[in-house]
Amino acid sequence: MSEPAVTNPKKMTLPEFAAISTAGGRIVMVTAYDASSARLADAAGIDVILVGDSAAMTMLGHDSAVPVTFDEMVMMTRAVARSTRHALVVADMPFGSYQASDEQAVVNAVRLVKDGCADAVKVEGAGRTRRRIRAILAAGIPVMGHVGLTPQSVTKLGGYRARGRTAAEALAIHQAARTLERAGCFAVVLEAIPPQVAERISASLAIPTIGIGAGSACDGQVLVWHDLLGLTTGHVPKFVKAYAALAGTIETALRNFAAEVREGSFPEAVHTYAMATGEFENFEAGLREAERRDGDG
Questions:
Q1: Is 191 a residue of the active site?
Q2: Is-contact 39 59, C-beta < 8 A?
Q3: Beta strands 120-122 and 48-51: pairing type?
Q4: Residue 281 exposure: Cα atoms within 13 Å on the Cβ side
Q5: SS3 state at 70
Q6: Is the distance from CB of 189 to CB of 177 less than 8 angstroms?
Q7: What CATH superfamily is the domain 14-228?
Q8: Nearest Cα to Cα of residue 118 among 80, 141, 157, 89
Q9: Per residue in 211-250, pLDDT tens?
Q10: Quick one: which H or E segment has residue 35?
Q11: Tens digits of per-residue pLDDT, 67-117?
């Protein structure tokens, strides 16, 4: 199968990333977790591919983002990076990979870049995380922040619900975003907050904001691969727009394949390989000779 043509083979740099919003453009980010998805996203001209810890749910069948392991994140990041020529590749630091200490954060961020070949890492929160961010930056690794609904903290925060719907919560998120900027983040994800709050945050920051369920005033938008393509079954967040309905298409294709196998109509001759003239006769002669030797033995 031929690979899709890459629209822009030049690798995006952080200054080019920042220049998109400075020039009045909008940043486009999607999640991806494997080589084929990364190739398609890159060919489509996506600016940033996030290897998200949402893989715990979309790829690994967990109920939350928390169980995905660091080794699993490294493996998926490496697969995405191998197949990306243009987009910036950002890898989520999963739960447990940076909370314990600055040293742990740096060691794991380095591994995501060195072994996973990520261009940058993403961390959630702003309190104690600010120290971790500064330590990672000191090691020469760019960091993207994430505030609002932070999936790694849903148990503590009372589940998957929008944040910033009260003045107190909105002020805390605004302060957290400013803290991340001061810590040195090159961008910040704003998840599941009211659009008015996201607009104020975006206006107050010099770094780009990327929204997911945060309205259109952010400097960019991100969606999860499976949600965007209509591959998610069951509950889908309110902020998701599906641009395709591939779950039904794939299920139909699989049902058709199963039916044809069971009725014997697949494969047809066009799906098989031919032998050169006389080779099958030679093969049969060889079998007869082998059977004769076995009989003699």
A1: yes
A2: no
A3: unpaired
A4: 3
A5: helix
A6: no
A7: Phosphoenolpyruvate-binding domains (3.20.20.60)
A8: 89
A9: 999 999 999 999 999 999 999 988 888 999 999 999 999 9
A10: helix 35-43
A11: 999 999 999 999 999 999 999 999 999 999 999 999 999 999 999 999 999
Strand, helix or coil for residue 139: coil
- 52 token code pair: 């998200």
Catalytic one of 124, 191, 284, 291? 191
92: alpha, beta or left, given left = phi > 0 and alpha = psi -120 to 50?
beta
CB distance 20 to 215 below 8 Å:
no
How far apart, in Å, do the first and last CA atoms of the chain sit?
48
Q: From the CA atom positions of the chain, what is the Rg in Å? A: 25
Q: pLDDT for 175-218, tens place per residue?
A: 999 999 999 999 999 999 999 999 999 999 999 999 999 999 99
Copy the structure tokens of residue 276: 């050169």
By DSSP bridging, strand 48-51 and strand 27-31 are parallel
Residue 281: alpha-carbon gap to chain centroid: 53
For residue 30, the cross-strand partners are 49, 223
Tokens 């803290």 correspond to 179
Other C-beta atoms closer than 10 Å to the C-beta of 61 total 8
